[in-house]
Amino acid sequence: MKTKVLLCTLAILSLGLIFLSFKGKKENTGYQGIDVSRYQKEIDWKEVAKDKNIPMVLC
Question: Which of 54, 32, 4, 38 lies closest to 46 in space, CA to CA?
Answer without folding.
Answer: 54
